[in-house]
Structures are given as structure tokens and as C-alpha cells.
Write a structure and sequence with these properties.
By secondary structure, this protein is α/β, with parallel strands linked by helices. The protein is built from 13 helices and eight strands. It has a single domain, classed as Alpha-Beta Complex (Spore Coat Polysaccharide Biosynthesis Protein SpsA, Chain A). It has an eight-stranded mixed beta sheet with strand order 3-2-1-4-7-6-8-5, sandwiched between helices. Helix 3 links the parallel strand 2 and strand 3.
Length: 411
């Protein structure tokens, strides 16, 4: 049993070290290309779709940011799709119609984000379609930096680099802001091998005719951004990511809202795996790398958590039994013979993984200019993120798997 536990642990450590080594190698190889982007050969007419449901606190600011994009206004059409909001979202947009001549409002009954986007696609005039969440705020040059990727006729979708706007709200938002930096960096790494597997909601740009060709956004998926990307890849179209096209978004700063959001992401990922499972180990980069990579990441996360929990509870239970027995016979509970000053090989590999990950994450935060300088506070946040946030993240998968199993796909 001891040999099996040790072997299993070493296998997990090997896969974890292999994954992070893979990202580090990609980083070193492409270190001079991260913030480069492609200059567009033409100015496209672009329609920006902003689906909104009860966003009275953010919709005005989002529209103002969109209107300040560094792109010719005569080639920009902005459509806000009001998805049956019960607050003042509709009234706020109506007032802004008088201010912006290229702003339009599509008012509809509540039917979900995917259906809202599909109705916006039908109404749109643009050759390219940008999707912007109603609580997100694109930087002025972001849209122009995305358009150059469509010089390639087979390019179907390009996504942006998302940062957290409310990162100073509390520690929980701060930790998520670090997470978003790392996610964005790793997504750019996957761009170098043509494996961008999600075009995020805060800001992504699509070729309209390809959206139509693949059947639009799937209203049955609760993460339409994941599904549309996989659908593009499934049909042989390319996806990309521009790290220099920045957009900020508001993240949940309370645990309950965050947990619901992440469970929804997890369910959407499993929906995508189920929908496209026939493409495993076929269909080029999509089936040979992306689907196995995502699936393996989920499995390793869950198995690693369960195995670590087993080791911890086994050690605690053993200590409780020893303590109880020692107390019953009047023996000393703690003595020097019980203290092991020689770390096991399992501890050794864990320490290596922790320090390699921390150095890699710190490098990412430095290159993405998360802070102006390295501070003790940032290092503490990074350590907290590495140990606590990632350590307990697999709990989300248990909730997502349960809801997926009972077909509870509600938001």
C-alpha cells in the first residue's frame, strides 16, 4: 500500500511539473512576442454587441468606454441587447441613444445571453462582430489591435487580455486579479501553438459569416463563449489571443457569487466536452491537444485534491490515535523520537513544485505590470493564491459535476 501511495503521488507530481515545464518552455521560446500584435490591412465595419440583463450600475460606463475606442465611428455600430431587464438598464440606454448616433437598442424578453447574441447577430451590419459584457470596459486601442488577426481568412475569433477592475475591493478580489493575469498569460502561450480554447465574454472579436456558418451561439450552453470557440475549432477555423488588447472587468468580491460563477464555468466546460466528445484524438489541434488538455486538467485537479485530502486525513487520524493511546497509558504525547527531521521524497517534490510555480507566477505578474514593483504584500498574496485558492478550487468541480449530473444548468 505504501509503495502504491508513493508511486501515485510521484506520478501526480511528475504530471504537474511536466505541465508547468511545458508553459515555462513556451514562455522562454516566445518571450519577445508576447505583446506583439498584427497590423490590420483594412478597416472593417464592426458591430459591437453588448448583451445586458439588470446592469443599471455598469451599462452607462461600459457604453462610454466602447464609444471611446480608437476606431472610426463611421465604421462602428453598437447594439445593446436588453434581455428583459427589470431594473433601469433600458431607460439608461434610451437616454444614451440621443448622445450616440451609432448606438442602437434591441429590447427583448428574457431568454438568456446566447439567444440575445444570436438576435444581435441577425440585426448587425458588421463584417466583424465584437462581444462586450455589460460590466466590462475595453481600453481605447484594444479593438484595433484585435482586427489585424483577421488578415488571415481562416481566422474565426480573437480574444483579449482581461484584467480585474475592482481588484482593490478586498483580498478576495485581489487574489482573483492575480488569477486573471496568470490565465491571460497562459492563454497567450496556447495562442503560440494555435490552441486558444475560449474567447472571453469581456471582449472578443468574431468573423460574422463564420458565426452564422457554425450555427450561432448555443442557447443550451451556459457558457456560450466556450461553446462558440470550440464550435469554431471543430469546423476548422482558427482562434487567437492578443495580450496587448486589454479590457477590465468586475469580478465577484463575495464568495457566494464567485462560487456560483465558477460552478457555471465548470458546467459549461463539461457541456462542451460532452457535445464534442467525438472529436477526441481527431480534428487536428482541437481533438489532439485542446480536448485532452482540458479534460486532463480537470481530472488532475480532482484526483490531486482527493489524494492530498486522503494523505492529510490519514496523517491526522493516525496522530489522534497515537495521542489517545499515549494519554491512556500515561506516556508522553510528544518526544524527539516522533519528530522526523528528514523530509520524504513527496515533500521534496511538493517544495520544488511550489517554488517553481511561485517564481513563474511572479515573472508573469512582473511582465504584465501587475504592480510597479515587487512588494512583500504581493508575495503574500501570491503565496495565498498558490496554496489556498488553487488548493481548494477543485471543490468547485464537485458542485459542477453534481449539477451537471442532475442537469441543473441554471445560472
Amino acid at each position: 500500500m505504501v509503495e502504491f501511495v508513493t508511486g501515485f503521488y510521484l506520478a501526480l507530481m511528475f504530471m504537474a511539473l511536466y505541465m508547468i515545464s511545458f508553459f515555462i518552455i513556451l514562455t522562454v521560446k516566445n518571450r519577445k512576442k508576447f505583446f506583439s500584435y498584427i497590423e490590420p490591412k483594412k478597416e472593417y465595419f464592426i458591430t459591437i454587441l453588448i448583451p445586458a440583463y439588470n446592469e443599471q450600475n455598469n451599462i452607462k460606463q461600459t457604453i462610454n468606454h466602447v464609444m471611446q475606442l480608437d476606431y472610426p465611428k463611421e465604421k462602428l455600430e453598437v447594439i445593446v441587447i436588453n434581455d428583459g431587464s427589470t431594473d433601469k438598464t433600458k431607460e439608461i440606454v434610451k437616454k444614451l441613444l440621443k448622445k450616440y448616433s451609432n448606438l442602437k437598442l434591441l429590447d427583448k424578453k428574457n431568454s438568456g445571453k446566447a439567444d440575445s447574441l444570436n438576435k444581435g447577430v441577425k440585426m448587425s451590419k458588421g463584417e466583424l462582430l465584437a462581444v462586450v459584457d455589460s460590466d466590462s470596459f475595453p481600453s481605447p486601442p484594444s479593438l484595433r489591435k484585435l482586427t489585424g488577426y483577421f488578415n488571415e481568412e481562416n481566422m474565426g475569433a480573437v480574444t483579449s487580455f482581461v484584467t480585474v477592475r475592482n481588484k482593490d475591493k478586498n483580498l478576495f478580489a485581489k487574489i482573483q486579479s492575480i488569477e486573471y493575469m496568470i490565465l491571460g498569460w497562459n492563454r497567450k502561450l496556447l495562442d503560440f501553438i494555435g490552441a486558444v480554447y475560449v474567447t472571453n465574454g469581456p471582449l472578443s472579436l468574431y468573423r460574422k459569416k463564420y458565426i452564422v456558418k457554425v450555427g450561432g451561439f448555443d442557447s443550451k450552453s451556459i457558457t456560450e463563449d466556450i461553446d462558440i470557440t470550440w464550435n469554431m475549432l471543430y469546423h476548422g477555423f482558427e482562434t487567437a489571443m492578443c495580450l496587448d488588447a486589454k479590457v477590465s472587468t468586475i469580478v465577484p468580491h463575495r464568495f457566494k457569487l464567485w462560487f456560483r460563477q465558477r460552478v457555471r464555468w465548470g458546467i459549461g466546460g463539461m457541456q462542451a466536452i460532452q457535445k464534442y466528445k467525438a472529436s477526441f484524438f481527431r480534428k487536428g489541434i482541437f481533438g489532439l491537444f485542446i480536448m485532452p488538455f482540458i479534460t486532463l486538467s480537470i481530472v488532475l485537479s480532482i484526483v490531486g485534491f482527493l489524494f492530498s485530502s486522503y494523505l492529510i486525513f490519514k496523517a491526522l487520524f493516525g496522530r489522534i490515535l497515537i495521542t489517545g493511546y499515549a494519554s491512556s497509558i500515561g506516556a508522553s504525547v510528544l518526544n524527539m523520537q516522533n519528530i522526523n527531521l528528514y523530509p520524504s521524497v513527496m515533500v521534496f517534490y511538493f517544495i520544488i513544485l511550489f517554488f517553481v510555480s511561485s517564481i513563474y507566477y511572479n515573472y508573469i505578474l512582473h511582465k504584465t505590470k501587475y504592480d510597479k514593483k515587487i512588494t512583500l504584500r504581493r508575495l503574500v498574496s501570491l503565496s495565498f493564491y498558490t496554496i489556498i485558492f488553487l488548493g481548494f478550487y477543485p471543490l468547485i468541480w464537485f458542485a459542477a459535476i453534481y449539477r451537471f449530473a442532475i442537469k441543473d444548468y441554471g445560472w
